Automatic annotation (TrEMBL):
PROSITE patterns linked: DNA_MISMATCH_REPAIR_1 (PS00058)
Subcellular location: Nucleus
UniProt lineage: Eukaryota, Viridiplantae, Streptophyta, Embryophyta, Tracheophyta
GO molecular-function terms, A-Z: ATP binding; ATP hydrolysis activity; ATP-dependent DNA damage sensor activity; mismatched DNA binding
Keyword match DNA repair: yes
DNA mismatch repair protein S5 domain segment(s): 233-355
Protein name: DNA mismatch repair protein MLH1
Region (Disordered): 1-25
Keywords, sorted A to Z: DNA damage, DNA repair, Nucleus
InterPro entries: DNA_mismatch_repair_CS, DNA_mismatch_S5_2-like, HATPase_C_sf, Mlh1_C, MutL/Mlh/PMS, MutL/Mlh/Pms-like, Ribosomal_Su5_D2-typ_SF, Ribsml_uS5_D2-typ_fold_subgr
Species name: Rhynchospora pubera
Family: Belongs to the DNA mismatch repair MutL/HexB family.
Length: 737
């Protein structure tokens, strides 16, 4: 017995734990429960994008834009122009089970929105860092707030915003090591996101969709709303797919059997593909149905070649009470009433459609040109192959000429060193700027509706006056950070440059005004702004700047000048609205143009803008008129320093509550206790304005500059671009040390 006791237990023998007392059942902490649930709802970055896009569509958006970095693990950015989120709803926005879609369980029977549980945003805050920027109609400004673990990290901060909502999810699965390791290959999930947006773009053909890698100038998905379904498929999947599609529809309205309607497109016998593409929407909800997919593939197996698979787009509409949408954590699947009968009916309709269209097949042929021998083709391919494989290895770059940053990767910026856990991502391939410019020009081709020789001359002047060296810098520079209130630091190859932000933004806005001529989107003011009040304000400010505070003011003269300017602007209001998107009505300013997407100018400069518009424009000559109006708009939209002084550093002295008009010398003598008594509300407003400007410079100005700016030759000599250092010279300095 003793010898048997010393042997290890056999596999069939009971383990010691079974003879001990059973483990205690514990109630899990709320944070653990939420993280487990979040991992089920947000299984991968594409699932997060799906939830955010569905929220945008539920918000009646007409434009949805998606930007992705590192397959969504580092950054997901989804922007829309929907109705936005109320300020009073922001505190509970990311709590679990908070939703605007339903209030009681019975509402699920008639639900039409895609979201209903109120779990998606909450789940994202438990596995990532979420920042929401939103504005609702009628608000003077938007709000930005960050969330973590379902709650706000700070009170919502006022900020400039474009209509709708922008949700940014950073560092997804940062606290789920196992999940993050399985998703490390960013090349794996980004195609899933592109495929997801492509499917939405086909179904929601009245919505503008775009999807791109963060920092890239070329969109991998880009559609313009208002096109037909077939045009949407052609835009997303290509003409080769669209030409081999047939329209199909089937319905049944017998209450005793089925009530449904199906419309869509299916591929004919000429279509060749190695993988089935099935886009299925049920009651406008993107879902999967394995049984329906197998039934369709079974029909095609007798028609298509053995190795080829079909393309199917289907939109099925059923009564809401015939669909159970609450059967899957990610709402990817639904349960249908009489599903088998529905599938049989659709299968029969597809089979009949294929049989009626299968009388002929088209085979694509390729003509071999005799002017180019086969040996020449193979030689060229071999040469290209050898260059691709050996070109990088054959030349070793000296260390003092090695560029370690990528203009598309924000890791080289100063902000990346202010955050913990930042890691460099793999360098993305350079985007084809030429193709992106062609897309933009095609969308905003002002020549379609206008025929002004003078405008054409102004645009040609821009194109012919480009400095080629500065153009290369602008296209491939890396933003580093702000040096002071006017200059920003950028890197190009092994050089550092100081760039005058005001001059660059002014030139960019000028060029954009001319290129968007008569094709502007609108910034609607929340309330009409009286022109007389604004012009009087500008005249008083101008008098203070030129003559000082002690000048006696002549209000009657100012009112006469203001009325004269108003009469002039009234005469030109039709032209200003049609060509430049500036709408005035009944002596008030109603609307301003969108000169640069995602950017709103400093509204404190509207009085100065109107005064300049009335006095600095040459209204007599067409060419001069277009040029001067564009210049006035450019100066207004340029990224000037805010009017309020920068409260950081010595600027805080302007915000002291007990500040007397005794000059700087007396201020220095103020004791420390008085020095700390500042106007906190005004300081907060100033800090918001300065931080918003810095954000606009980094995230709006520099990306747009790479896309659109054609720097004129004068910028090389007027101090707009100043080289301050080069890596080669720095190496020589350090070698002497």
């Amino acid at each position: 017995m003793e010898s048997r006791a010393s042997d290890p237990p056999s596999p069939t023998s009971p383990s010691p734990s079974r003879s001990s007392s059973p483990p205690r059942i514990r109630r899990l902490e709320a944070s653990v429960v939420n993280r487990i649930a979040a991992g089920e709802v947000i299984q991968r970055p594409s699932a997060a994008v799906k939830e955010l896009v569905e929220n945008s569509l539920d918000a009646a958006s007409t434009s949805v834009s998606v930007s992705v970095k590192d397959g969504g693990l580092k950054l997901l950015l989804v922007s829309d122009d929907g109705h936005g989120i109320r300020h009073e709803d922001l505190p509970i926005l990311c709590e679990r089970h908070t939703t605007s879609k339903l209030s009681k369980y019975e509402d699920l029977q008639t639900i039409k929105s895609m979201g209903f549980r109120g779990e998606a945003l909450a789940s994202m805050t438990y596995v990532g860092h979420v920042t929401v920027t939103t504005i609702t109609e009628g608000q003077l400004h938007g709000y930005r707030v960050s969330y973590r673990d379902g709650v706000m990290e700070h009170e919502p901060k006022p900020c400039a915003a474009v209509k709708g909502t922008q949700i940014m999810v950073e560092n997804l699965f940062y606290n789920m090591a196992a999940r993050r390791k399985t998703l490390q290959n960013s090349n794996d999930d980004y195609p899933k996101i592109v495929d997801l947006i492509s499917r939405f773009a086909v179904h929601y053909m009245n919505v503008n969709f775009s999807c791109r890698k963060y920092g890239s100038n070329r969109a991998d998905v880009h559609t313009v709303g208002g096109s037909s379904r077939l045009d949407a498929i052609r835009t997303v999947y290509g003409a080769s797919v669209a030409r081999d599609l047939m329209e199909i529809s089937v319905s049944d309205d017998n209450p005793t059997r089925l009530i449904f309607k199906m419309e869509g497109f299916i591929s004919n016998s000429n279509y060749l593909a190695k993988k089935t593409t099935m886009i299925l929407f049920i009651n406008d909800r993107l879902v999967d149905c394995t049984a329906l997919k197998r039934a369709v593939e079974l029909v095609y197996s007798a028609t298509l070649p053995k190795a080829s698979k079909p393309f199917i787009y289907m939109s099925i509409n059923l009564p809401s009470d015939h669909v159970d949408v609450n059967i899957h954590p990610t709402k990817r699947e639904v349960s249908l009433l009489n599903q088998d009968s529905l599938i049989d009916t659709i299968q029969s309709a597809i089979e009949a459609k294929l049989m009626s269209s299968n009388s002929t097949r088209i085979f694509q042929t390729q003509v071999v040109s005799s002017s180019l021998p086969t040996t020449q083709i193979s030689t060229r391919k071999d040469k290209e192959h050898s260059i691709a494989n050996s070109g990088v290895q054959s030349q070793k770059i000296p260390v003092n000429q090695m560029v370690r940053t990528d203009s598309r990767d924000p890791f080289g910026r100063l902000h990346s060193y202010w955050k913990d856990g930042s890691q460099s991502s793999k360098q993305e391939k350079k985007s084809d700027l030429a193709s992106m410019r062609s897309v933009v020009v095609a969308r905003r081709n002002w020549k379609e509706n206008t025929d002004f020789t003078s405008l054409d001359q102004l645009v040609r002047e821009i194109d012919s006056n480009v400095h080629p060296g500065l153009l290369d810098i602008v296209k491939d520079c890396t933003y580093i950070g702000l040096a002071d209130e006017v200059f920003a630091v950028l890197q190009y190859n092994t050089y550092l440059y100081l760039v005058n932000v005001v001059n660059v933004s002014k030139e960019l806005m000028y060029q954009q005004v001319l290129r968007r001529f008569s094709k502007f989107n609108a910034i609607q003011l929340s309330e009409p702004a009286p022109l007389q009040d604004l012009l009087l304000m500008a005249l008083r400010d101008e008098e203070l700047e030129t003559r000082g505070d002690e000048t006696e003011t002549n209000d009657d003269l100012k009112e006469k000048i203001a009325l004269m300017n108003i009469e002039l602007l009234k005469e030109k209001e039709d032209m200003l609205e049609d060509y430049f998107g500036i709408k005035m009505e009944d002596g008030s300013l109603i609307r301003l143009p969108v000169v640069l997407d995602q950017y709103i100018p400093d509204m404190d400069r509207i009085p100065e803008f109107l005064l300049s518009l009335a006095n600095d424009v040459d209204w007599d000559d067409e060419r001069e008129c277009f040029q001067t109006v564009s210049a006035v708009l450019a100066n207004f939209y340029a990224m000037h320093p805010p009017i309020l002084p920068n409260p950081s550093g010595d600027g805080i002295r302007y915000y002291r509550k007990n500040r007397e008009e005794v000059g700087l010398e007396a201020e220095i003598l103020v004791d420390k206790s008085d020095e700390e008594q500042v106007d906190e509300e005004l300081v907060a407003e100033a800090e918001t304005a300065w931080s918003q400007r810095e954000w606009n410079i980094q995230h709006v100005l520099f990306p747009s500059m790479r896309l659109f700016l054609k720097p004129p030759k004068c910028m090389a000599t007027d101090g707009t671009f100043v080289q301050v250092a080069s890596l080669e010279k720095l190496y020589r300095v350090f070698e002497r040390c």
